[in-house]
């Protein structure tokens, strides 16, 4: 059988991108976004700066692609196996709560929040990023499955997905402003329990 050159080329490009994005991640975790340079990334990735500039104009565009890769990996990794016997809603809610917890614990997210929080502001105040678009697509698909099996309240899937993502973002980005780990009623775990209740109430038919 003749190899599919297009697929091989796409796989190689993806692999090359991962090498570069791994290098960006290491740089950001070490010194933050503002102190990361294209030279640093090229050196860690073992490529020339010109190779980077052919694909990414600057460090922020590199970090944007890195965030998309990492956040989508968190979201897909948190989703449990579907359970047809209970419908889509229970595993979906389990996955969403687990995803928020995993996102908040992610080293890249923690570093950005601690050192370069302004990097997140455009995606909170002005526009949706690629990772948000991908998450909305995943959410809308799961919600439609829930509509079909009767486990999720029927509503326009696009609007419902955006509403759910707004709730998830508020917990993921702002939870530490509300927690008090010394008070058993105000711990992160207690608030994640509240998130589960919010999702149950809004998605139950």
TrEMBL record:
Pfam families: TetR_N (PF00440). SUPFAM superfamilies: Homeodomain-like. InterPro entries: Homeodomain-like_sf, HTH-type_TetR-like_transc_reg, HTH_TetR. It comes from the Bacteria. The keyword DNA-binding applies. Keywords: DNA-binding. Residues 37-56 bind DNA. Residues 14-74 form the HTH tetR-type domain. PANTHER family: HTH-TYPE TRANSCRIPTIONAL REGULATOR RUTR (PTHR30055), HTH-TYPE TRANSCRIPTIONAL REPRESSOR RV3405C (PTHR30055:SF153). This is TetR/AcrR family transcriptional regulator. It comes from Streptomyces iakyrus.
């Amino acid at each position: 059988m003749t190899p599919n050159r297009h697929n091989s080329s796409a796989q190689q490009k993806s692999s090359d991108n991962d090498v570069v994005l791994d290098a960006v991640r290491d740089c950001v975790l070490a010194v933050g976004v503002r102190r990361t340079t294209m030279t640093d990334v090229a050196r860690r990735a073992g490529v020339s700066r010109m190779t980077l500039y052919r694909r990414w104009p600057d460090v922020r565009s590199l970090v944007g692609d890195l965030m998309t890769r990492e956040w989508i990996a968190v979201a897909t990794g948190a989703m449990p196996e579907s359970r047809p016997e209970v419908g889509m809603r229970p595993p979906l809610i389990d996955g969403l709560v687990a995803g928020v917890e995993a996102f908040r614990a992610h080293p890249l997210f923690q570093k950005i929040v601690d050192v370069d929080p302004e990097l997140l502001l455009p995606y909170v105040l002005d526009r949706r990023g690629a990772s948000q678009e991908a998450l909305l697509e995943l959410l809308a698909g799961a919600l439609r499955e829930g509509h079909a099996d009767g486990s999720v309240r029927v509503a326009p899937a696009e609007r419902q997905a955006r509403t759910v993502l707004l709730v998830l973002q508020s917990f993921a980005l702002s939870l530490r402003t509300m927690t008090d780990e010394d008070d058993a009623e105000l711990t992160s775990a207690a608030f994640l329990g509240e998130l589960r209740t919010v999702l149950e109430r809004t998605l139950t038919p």
